[in-house]
Structure formats: structure tokens, C-alpha cells
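Run log, item B.
One chain of 153 residues. Sequence copied directly from the ordering sheet:
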Amino acid sequence: MEKIKVEPFHLIGIAVRTTNQNKKAATDISLLWEKFWKEDILNKIPNRTSDNSIYSLYTNYEGDHTEPYTTLIGCKVENLNNIPDGMVGQSFDGGNYIRITAKGDMAEGLIVNEWSKIWSMGLDRSFSADFEEFGEKARNPSDAEINFFVAVK
């Protein structure tokens, strides 16, 4: 775990409004990832700044992690001037973050398990925008390394 400053950036991708109540987010986000891969969203995103990383951004929180929020799966882009139909663009302000790296098998609940740990850490969270970065080391789902970025005050 390390405290870092994240610079502003833009994302384009697909999104869903969800909540962690009744494990709804696990279903909604899983379906969003399925759509992302099935519809080849990655290759439809214009002006990508890198082909190496995919981001899962959690934003527009109504309160804390127990309240509704929006999840966007997409890529960093140069600007939001050309957002394809069916996709959304999001400007991200950057800020103070805690970066946590998790390793393991994505099929064994790596992401959900790591967020459960984060929720119980007692971090002074800002609930502005949190995200995961799936880079080169996340390409092997059975031995993935994923960076989690948690916004803090």
C-alpha cells in the first residue's frame, strides 16, 4: 500500500449504475465486463492513449461504498470529443490516492475479495472516484496482478 498523487485523465467506455447491496454490483459489473469483451468495446474506443491498460472506474457515489454508484469500464483517451453511440465519457479529476496491488486468480474472486479488505481498512476515503487498472500483468486471469486506486482525503 502506498500513497500517491494521480493526475487527471479521461476515460471512454461502457457504464452501469449499481449498488453493493444484496450483491447486485457483483452481477451488474460481471455483466458489464461480459459486454465489454463480447462487443469488442476496447477496439471501438477512439483516441486511446494506450492499448496496454483497461480501467474500471467507480464514481458518482451517493454516499459511501454501501450506497449506489456508477461503474465505467474503458480506456484512457486523449479527449472526450468523439464518444461512440452506446458509450460514455468521463473526466477524472485526479487527487490523493492509496495504491494497493493484489495478485491472484480472478475466477477465485480476486477483485471482490480485495474490495472487501479495502472496505474494512478504515481509510479516510473521499468517495470521489476509485478505480482498478488492468495492465500487462493482468492478462493472465489465473495469475493476475491488478492495481487498486482508492481516493483518500
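Observations after the first pass:
- Helices lie at 24-38, 110-119.
- The longest strand covers residues 9-18.
Flagged for discussion on Thursday.
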